[in-house]
Write a structure and sequence with these properties.
Elements lengths: L13 E8 L2 E8 L2 E6 L6 H27 L6 H8 L3 H8 L12
Antiparallel strand pairs: 1-2, 2-3
Length: 109
């Protein structure tokens, strides 16, 4: 079973790297009372997987920031209108757009 986590950053949101134990860095993402920590798996290949994931995460985060900036360049987003048009759950978004929010696949016409 998968776990879906939705994080909408608050004013205190931050991402940082901490190394409380030598040779054991953690990527910590926090907002409000929520915290997500990413660490290397303690097994063979764990460091390489963490490196690959962190680089993919950085690339996706930059693309997300660029898209958010693009959407708000002219005016703030009207979230009430977006919610009315698309809904708020992944299932409601899927129904309105033909694409589930958690799916990698785009619908074919």
């Amino acid at each position: 079973m998968g776990l879906h986590v939705l994080l909408q950053p608050e004013e205190d949101a931050e991402a940082s790297v901490v190394e409380r134990a030598q040779w054991h860095p953690s990527l910590v993402i926090s907002s409000g009372d929520a915290r997500l920590t990413v660490q290397m798996a303690g097994r063979e290949g764990g460091a390489e997987m963490a490196i690959r994931f962190a680089r993919e995460l950085a690339e996706a985060a930059a693309a997300f920031a660029d898209r958010c900036q693009e959407l708000t360049r002219l005016a703030p987003l009207d979230f009430d209108a977006l919610t009315a048009a698309l809904g708020t759950s992944p299932e409601e978004v899927a129904e309105a757009t033909g694409r589930h929010a958690l799916s990698e696949q785009w619908p074919t016409e």
